[in-house]
Structures are given as structure tokens and as C-alpha cells.
Amino acid sequence: MSTSRRVGLRIGDQVRFEGRLHSVVALEGTLVRLADEGGLVAVIHLPHLLMSAGFERVDRADRLPLPQTSRLEGLSREEMRVAELWETHLHQVLTGLPPQAGPDTAPRPEYDPAVHSLAARERAKAAELAGLGVEGASERTSRRKRKRYQERGLAGLVDGRGDRGRPLLERADQRVVAALRQAMTEAVEESSRTVEYFRWRTERILAAQYGDGVVAMPSRASFYRLFAKVDAGRHATGSAGTRRSLARRPEGPFGQVTASRPGELMQIDSTPFDVLVLLDDGVPGRVELTGMVDLATRTVAAAALRPTTKPVDASLLLARTVTPEVMRPGWKDALSMARSVLPYRPLLEIDQRLEHAAARPVIVPELIVCDRGAVFLSRNFRASCRALGISVQPAHPKTPTDKPRASYCASLG
Q1: How far apart are the first and last CA of the chain?
Q2: 210 half-sphere exposure, CB direction, 13 A CA radius
């Protein structure tokens, strides 16, 4: 087996398997669900697929639209019968043989591709269907259905008059959807664009891939509705910073990082407030909120407001996380540790300071994930963590999704 193969698969990838082009439509554990160009679905173990002779993953630039297998869901028995009837006839027009023909079957003379052109075979099929009494089986209808069958398989032969109740992304031409997504991907690192720009760019991509005028663009209003669906969560015309941050987010093929016990994984982050406050010197100014979140319990272990967060503030925040919070004058007894659901008496035997403590859990971190800000990479903060036996793991550059809980809590303020 060649070691140059790219074996990582994602939904939407195109692969060659058993001499046919398939699309990856689902992944579950080591099982891969494939759909061929005719809409036939097969479930295969990933190791078997990768070791099969002739297996090849098609480059993204050569992708075809995904077969719309979901378009066949919910069809009545009569609608399915009509679509399969047309598939049988159109398969004969394209190959000269019906789908169920054996290896020794010879094509009928009027459908022999070696003798007659495609247009001649379409005329012969239209005449045959008219003789059988099939309604609306003109040469023009046969040609239109043949093109749709080549593009989308059996799903392209379903009566489209019932499409109004189906999702917009399923009704749209998948070539237009793929081109629009490519245009959005290209513009991730650029300044924010308008919807009209993406309409122009989508048309240029389709012309480069299929030729001018081959793929019909939707109307302006239809494109705007399609853009709104594809743009959901992308911020293609919104905040450039948010768009770039989302684009750098890892795909996470095996799920999110989880913690099974308190302190196993904690996250820390700072964010400036967008409101003015009155500082200690009486001058209004802005402050920053710094908070530490425990991933296992979703507990905000400690938080602090400072005009400007400094390394000593981060170290003090760490100290508040690992020490009890003393009840302050004026606090109600309901806020005390003795009145909480925490195991007060067993904890009191461990640390007598909990006798006058507030009902805030004391969590000793094992690993803290932080961004690459100077505060958290400072010698002061790292030395404090080292003294307590705490590991510090900086997030990847410009990747706030490495510490989403802390970023979210800090943004809420």
C-alpha cells in the first residue's frame, strides 16, 4: 500500500471504491457510509475501505456535488415507482442497457452507443415511451430528465413540484452551494465583503469549473436567501475577527476535551468591560474581568475586576481558587459553608479554615489552560503554578476555542 495516501476522511469527501465514485455522507466510529452517483448507500469499515485495491481519495478541486439521498426520504410508493421507471429508461439511453442487464446482454440496436449518438438514442426513447402511453414523454422532457439524472442520480428524477416544503439547501443546485462555500473560504482572511461580492465570485467560480453559462445562477432574491443559509455561523459579512477565529477552530474528529474530576482541567481568561466604572481614585475608567473556570463542574472558581490585569493579579486569583472564602460582615448565614450542600463536616476535619468560610468550593487545579497573554506567561504566574504543582498549557496562537469556557464566561461578565 502506498504511504502517500491521505487517509483522513470527512463528510463530503469523494473516494473511488470498487471502480465507482462515492461520496462520504456519514462517519460513525470506524464505520463509513458511502453513497455512489446513483444514490445507492453502503456502510463499510474504514480499515477495509483504506486497504481495498483501487481506493483513492479524489482531490477537493475535483469533487462532484453530493448525491441528494435525503431527497428520496418520505416519498410515496407511487413517486418512487415513477422515479425508478425513468431511471431504467435513462440508464438504457446512456449505456445502451437497462440497469439489471447481465454481462452478456447486448444493447438493443436503437440504443447501441457504438452506432447511434446520444441525441438519436434520446429520440428513440421518446418515441418508445410515447408508444407505451407515458404522459409527457417528449424528447425535450427526456433530455431534461437525463441531465438531471447525470447530475444527481435517482434524486434528480423526483417530481420537483413538492420541493417547496423541503429545506432550501436541499432544493438548491449543489454546484452553486459548493461554489458559494468556496468563495466564503477564500475570503476568511480578507476584509469583510458584501453579499453582492459573493454573488459575483460564485458566478466566476462556476464559470471556471464548468464553463460560462453552464450552471444557471439563482435570481438575486434566491441567492440572498441561499447566502443566509450557507453563512449561518460563518460571519462572512460580519466581524472579521470572529470569522478568522472560527476558521482557525480545529475540527475535533474525536469530540471535545472532557474532565472527569474537579481541578483536572481549568481555564483562565481576561476580557475588558465595555462600560465605565468609578475607580478607587474617583476617576471613571474601564476595568478587566479575569476569571477561572473548572471544566468538570462548570464552576467559576474565582474572579477579579482590575483596571489592568497584572501578573500579580493572576497569582492572587490562583490563591483565591485554592483557599476558602471567608464570610464577610453583613453576609447572610445562608451563604456560609455550613448551610451549603457541600460535605461541610468532613471538609472541616481537613481544614479548620472552612469553619467560617462562605459556600464557595475550593478547587486545586491540576492543569490550567490560558492564552498567550503576557500576564499568564509571566514569570510570576508560572512560578506560582509551579510552587503548587500546577501545569500550565498555553493555547495555540489566536485560537480562543482552546479555552472556550473561560472565554465565554469572561465575555458574559
Answers
A1: 55
A2: 17
Give per-residue pLDDT as tens, 286-341.
888 888 999 888 888 888 888 888 888 889 989 989 888 888 888 888 888 888 87
pLDDT by residue (tens digit) across 243-284?
777 777 665 544 567 788 899 999 998 888 878 888 888 888
Distance CA 326, CA 330 (A): 12
Q: Using CA atoms, how far apart are residues 225 and 137, in angstroms rounded to an integer?
A: 34
- C-alpha dist (Å) from residue 386 to 259, 294, 382: 21, 19, 6
How far apart (Å, rounded) are the C-alpha atoms in residues 259 and 266?
9
**Cβ neighbours, 10 Å, residue 113:** 14
> Smallest Cα–Cα separation from 358: which of 340, 341, 346, 372?
340
Instruction: Return the number of other C-beta atoms located less than 10 Å from residue 346's C-beta.
Output: 8
Per the CB < 8 A criterion, the answer to whether 400 and 370 are in contact is no
Distance CA 225, CA 199 (A): 12
CATH code, residues 266-323+362-412: 3.30.420.10
Predicted TM-score (pTM) of this structure: 0.43
CA-CA distance, 314 to 373, in Å (whole number)? 11
User: DSSP readout, 23-72?
Assistant: EEEEEETTEEEEEETT--EEEEEHHHHHHSTT-EEEPGGGPPPPP-GGGG
Q: How many CB atoms lie within 10 A of CB 266?
A: 29
Q: Which neighbouring-strand residues pair with 336?
A: 358
Q: Give the residues across from 24 on adjacent strands.
A: 34
Grade residue 365 by pLDDT with cuts at 50, 70 and 90.
very high
> How far apart are the C-alpha atoms of 206 and 195, rounded to whole Å?
17
CA–CA separation, 13 and 18 (whole Å): 16
Q: How far apart are CA 400 and CA 410, in angstroms?
A: 12
β-pair partners for 304: 290
Q: 115 φ, ψ to 5°?
A: -110, -40
